[in-house]
Specification:
By secondary structure, the protein is α+β, with helices and mostly antiparallel strands. It has two helices and three strands. It is about 30% helix and about 15% strand.
């Protein structure tokens, strides 16, 4: 993993932020697939940190991943070139990214949509 863009203090804070936000998402019913394959890149066990940081005039949110294949980015986040105006908005954007990662853990196990008649 190439996370040298973050200081050890940022990573420590990001691990705490990740834990808090995974609990927050669980409280509203957003959880990873309980029996998903641990080898998948977007598996919840591959989440390393949720880094919210000042960036120029605004804020960015990054989800740092562990154990990604060579050549695959280990950070998914909001664009550095377009910082968000407040920390709260960056937090919300990061939660959306976390939700997408947790949803991806279901893969083909998702329940099929029911037809509405």
């Amino acid at each position: 993993m190439q996370i040298d863009r973050y200081t050890p203090a940022m990573m420590a804070a990001g691990r705490l932020e990740l834990g808090r936000n995974l609990k927050w998402l669980e409280a509203i019913g957003i959880t990873p697939c309980p029996d998903c394959e641990a080898g998948e890149m977007y598996h919840p066990d591959n989440l390393a940190a949720f880094v919210i940081r000042p960036n120029g005039p605004g804020w960015t949110a990054d989800i740092v991943l562990e154990r990604v294949p060579p050549g695959v980015p280990d950070v998914i986040g909001t664009p550095d070139a377009a910082p968000l105006p407040t920390r709260e908005i960056a937090l919300a954007a990061g939660r959306v990214i976390l939700t997408m990662i947790l949803s991806a853990s279901y893969g083909d196990k998702a329940k099929p949509a029911r037809a509405l008649h």
